[in-house]
Amino acid sequence: MIDFDNKAIFKLKQNSEYAEKVSELLLDDEEIIDSFKSMRDGVIFTSKRIISVNVQGITGSKKDFTSLPYKNIVAYSIETSGTFDLDSELEIYFSAIGKIKFEFTGESSMLQISKVISNHVL
Fold first, then answer.
1. pLDDT for residue 39
2. Which domains are delineated in the chain?
């Protein structure tokens, strides 16, 4: 599992191809909403959960997949991009894990992701 205490901030850029890394983990009725990639790691938002991918080792062949179900979210906060500040942020508070912060660079679907989280949390 990813050590979220030491790796609380992910700087992510939208990357639709990154979702292929988790395609075999998805349930039959689970859909990908969006996917994002940092240097090697990534985050995929689905209709049921957030899947965090931690690529390990020199070759990157070893991967850790952490599934974060929306049902375990206690609260969340989004900050959308502005005119001069193009980055957006998502802070999620999970029961038993605590706060996880994702920072997105460039274009992202924060409002769509917010709606999916709200549908599961509220």
1. 84
2. 9-121 (2.30.29.50)
